[in-house]
Amino acid sequence: MPQINGVICNTLTFFNRNSEIIDNLNSLLIRHILTNDANALLLFGSMGVNPLFSVKMEENIKLIELAMELTSKKNPILIGIYGADADEVIQQIEHLGKHFDELNYMIPPPISENLSSEGIRSYFENILGSINPRNQIYLYNDPLKFVKNEIEPNWLKKLTKFSNLRGLNDSFYNIKICKSYVQLINENFSVFCGLEENSQNFFQLIPSNQRKYSGIVSSISNLVNMCSKLYYYAVNDNLLELLQLQEQINDIRTKIYNIKIENDKERLGLTYAFMHLYGDLLSKNDEEVNHITSKLQTEIDPISRERIEATVNYLRNNKQIYQLYSIGRKDLYQFRDIIDTFSKIDILVQQGKVRKITGPYRADINTIYKVMFENSRLVFRFRTNKFFQFENLVKQKLLFPFLDKTLTPNDPNLREKVNKIINAKTGAYIFDKEKPPIIPVSNLIYYDETKEIIPYIFSVQEYIRGKPLFQLINKYINEGKNLNTKNFINIFSYLGEYLGNLHEIKFESFYRNISNIGKNVKQSYLEYFNNQLEIEIQEAKKNKIDFGSEIRDYYKDHLTLIEEENEFVLLYNDFCSQNVIVKEEQGLIHLNGLVDFDDWWVGPRAQDFIKMEYLILKPLNIPSFNNAFYDAYLKHNKIDNDFKKSIELHKLLWLLTEYNFESELKRKIHRPDPTNRVSTSLENYLFEIQAIIK
Question: Are residues 453 and 486 both part of a single domain?
């Protein structure tokens, strides 16, 4: 059996009031742990010890079977075994051996009686010499927990003569003794740090070329994916990143575990965090779920609960937690499910074997996985929002032919061609190298709207390397770096050029629904705008905006701007820094691509400036960025005072829409938002609306 290294998750365990395993909760937990990059599971460790282990052995066997099924035996499973004497430990291992051919065990010294050094050594020799050699054994040293029984380095080395002794988990309470342990590390003997808050110091005790034979026994990895990154930094000797990430993990531990109770802080804090994370997926009619939830409500004070919830939300939004999402009646948790799905699609089979899958990442409309094949790196997106406002189709399939001019707005057969594309429920769109798109986008490798493989439409596109522009900007700001550089100025110049390129694609009519492109449109843009504005004013009135009449007056004063709209272009309609992917290499910043065209449509070009102005240019307030963007755009279209007023008018409608959406979101929360994000957004929208109409 291969050596166990990396992140060993000290897993929580969910029992009901009768000390029986709760299958659905434990299944969800284990899948979550594996998705968040743990290398191995420790069952019945300090986070999941069942005090009735010997009495309820059948329940513990059920949990082990569940874990083995979910890991497909690809992730090692360690079982915590505790006993007052060697015979009790051996008996438990032999009992499990009747049900499982291969298991790994983590064994501490006797749990109830303090023994001499020689007595502890004899205890382990008896166990190691009595069990099947194919079972890997890892000892567990924590004198503070196990009646001061300590595993001494001088005789531990002699125990390594037993081939089934493969390592040690040390509580790191004594750095001098830990230094002696790490001297034993080799390809056949691992040493783990059982004190995750001190992992960074532990790794620095180990020569960098031997860290791959070490690991962390972590409880916080029940929740986050950060411990795998910590181990990666240690193995690659990235000491600065190691230190910074350790500080982040310790801060998160404090926020999750700082509960006003005496004992069991870690388990309760993690359990509450996990239940909050998956509250929307857990059945409200499940008696055991309700029992656990109500019990946690009484055990954890309200302030701590709010802090834990805010922390979980922050970690999820920053991708330090990979959350699992339900797909119809079947949960797409297991990576092998995705691989099975891909095996049914010829073009994906041609990409070679699946090497790695990361995610899921959730956006407002889609759930996303990044998939690394032998021959490519792709993004798998499936529409999980049941309330998507517009066309229930993969909108890139109709957009991309316009980007390389395969389709043109003045084509006499435009409607016939659009119908053909819309009616094609499966397919791809690969750009010809001789006819590239007018903006940088990735090939649409495959799309499927049939809902036969999974109960949602999905698409697979090439992965664009890099990160969203806003992340790079925030990184520079946090590090105190100068943003006003040629690198960033060039990026904004490119953005102006690309938006200008899109707006070169001009239509004779307005199409809010792209499925109607090529039809004779009956509704005018003026009529559409009037209706939308009135709907949002009425909705805003419900949300206690009391200056609807002022908004109407402002609109009437600028009505001619809408009446004169007669040029309609291809709109991105989500042109913001979140969808601009950049990569910094060797001091240069490259704009590698644009993503997320789920809301593109055909309308007046002023619409496309709203998010660029409101979310990027205005907050940054760097004149050189504005100049670079608009100078590049002006090569394609003019911008006069009337056009600037038109942008303001369209922004007014957008702000009202966003205000109403956030207000609805706040009502759905049913409690104060600990991050104050929603309240702050509402205040900003109100301020901007008032600034426009005054």
Answer: no
State which of 418, 447, 462 marks the end of a domain. Answer: 462
d(CA 277, CA 271): 10
Convert the pLDDT of each residue in 322-369 to its tens digit. Answer: 877 554 444 544 455 666 777 778 888 888 887 777 766 666 677 788
The beta-carbon contacts of 300-305 under 8 Å, at least 24 apart in sequence, are: 300/259, 300/261, 300/268, 300/269, 300/272, 301/259, 301/260, 304/258, 304/259, 304/260, 304/269, 305/272
Distance separating alpha carbons of residues 311 and 144, to the nearest angstrom? 30
Q: Which two tokens stand for residue 410?
A: 């003045």
Question: For residue 625, is pLDDT > 80?
Answer: yes
What's the pLDDT band for 678 if we cut at 50, 70, 90?
Answer: very low
Distance CA 34, CA 75 (A): 9
CA distance 40 to 5: 8
- Reported confidence tier of residue 436, pLDDT bands at 50, 70, 90: very high
Which of 13-17, 393-397, 468-472, 688-692 is predicted least confidently? 688-692
pTM comes to: 0.62
| Euclidean distance between CA atoms 97 and 61, whole angstroms | 11
More confident call, 544 vs 64: 64
pLDDT in tens, 456-515: 889 999 999 999 999 999 999 999 999 999 999 999 999 999 999 999 999 999 999 999
Is 618 a domain residue?
Answer: yes
Rounded distance, CA 154 to CA 563, Å? 89
Q: What is the pLDDT of residues 5-54, one digit of tens each?
A: 999 999 999 988 888 889 889 989 998 999 888 999 999 988 765 443 44
Q: What percentage of the chain's residues is helix, strand, coil (to nearest 5)?
A: 45, 15, 35
* 7 DSSP assignment: E
Please, what's the b/e burial string for 432-442 (b: 16 or more CB within 10 A of its CB; e: otherwise)? eeeeebbbbbb
Position of tokens 């949002």?
536
Residue 590 lies in a domain: yes
Helix axis angle for 23-35 and 265-277, nearest 10°, is 90
Mean pLDDT score across all residues of the chain: 88
> Which of 429, 383, 436 is CA-nearest to residue 405?
436
Q: Which residue has the tokens 């009686």?
A: 113
- The answer to the question of residue 134 being in a domain is yes
Structure tokens at 641: 């005072």
Structural domain range at position 385: 327-462
Per-residue tokens: 63 = 């949990």
- Give the pairing type, strands 588-594 and 580-585: antiparallel
pLDDT digits (tens, 9 = 90+) for 298-321: 999 999 999 999 999 999 878 798
Kind of pairing between the strands at 326-327 and 330-331: antiparallel
Using only the alpha carbons of the chain, give its radius of gyration. 30
Residues 521 and 374 in one domain: no
Token pair listed for 53: 């282990």
3-class DSSP assignment, residue 297: helix
> What are the structure tokens assigned to 590, written together?
């490259």
Q: What is the CATH number of the domain that holds 67?
A: 3.20.20.70
Q: Which residue has 């007595």 as its token pair?
A: 119
- Of the chain, the end-to-end C-alpha distance in Å amounts to 73
Distance CA 560, CA 133 (A): 86
Per the domain annotation, does 417 fall within a domain? yes
Q: Higher pLDDT residue, 547 or 489?
A: 489
